[in-house]
């Protein structure tokens, strides 16, 4: 039974062993046991496996572990799980988030480049700085957005801002993929915001 595994035993689990675990089996692990898993091990878990974890289990994960989760894994988390992870104090909403990103890109105040990660951790003027959707999202949320990014990483920070700002639609991908696809997502969301 998994609840009896030691930290050393958990660290010894391979990716293939972790992939075979069901969500029900993972629920037997405590939050302190989950803390023993490395970021690499957590990346082997699917969004479906993670979606079965309780809030108590998720709150046991460290910021470093959370920063290692992939966009696909983050999309698998429910709103309830994200609230457990971050607490309501991290519910940062940007009104018309995608309209603002689209307007800034059209006016060339922002440059969209999914393959470019945000320039550092400082709250700097990012005009004319190429960034991905996650970077633009965090920057538009201002100081509170940067606090989220520092605590949880850029992808999870952006996903949390998206969930608070646009809970009606799935979050975009926060990884490297064609800029045209990212722009299409932004424009589609902006058009919806214009109708509201």
Give a verbal description of the structure.
- A two-stranded parallel sheet has the order 1-2.
- The model has no long low-confidence stretch (mean pLDDT 82).
- It is elongated.
- The chain has 196 residues and is mostly helical.
- The chain is 56% helix and 2% strand.
- The chain has helices at residues 7-11, 15-20, 23-26, 31-34, 39-43, 47-51, 55-58, 63-67, 71-76, 79-86, 97-106, 133-140, 142-152, 154-165, 179-195, and strands at residues 111-112, 130-131.
Provide the descriptors you would attach to this structure in a database record:
single chain; 196 residues; mainly alpha; two-stranded parallel sheet; elongated
Layout of strands and helices, then pairs:
Layout (H helix, E strand, L loop, with lengths): L6 H5 L3 H6 L2 H4 L4 H4 L4 H5 L3 H5 L3 H4 L4 H5 L3 H6 L2 H8 L10 H10 L4 E2 L17 E2 L1 H8 L1 H11 L1 H12 L13 H17 L1
Parallel strand pairs: 1-2
Order of helices and strands: HHHHHHHHHHHEEHHHH
> For the report, how would you describe the main beta sheet?
2 strands, parallel
Count of discrete alpha- or pi-helical segments spanning 4 or more residues: 15
How far apart, in Å, are the first and last alpha carbons? 51 Å
Describe the structure concisely for a colleague.
The protein is mainly alpha-helical and 196 residues long. Helices cover 56% and strands 2% of the residues.
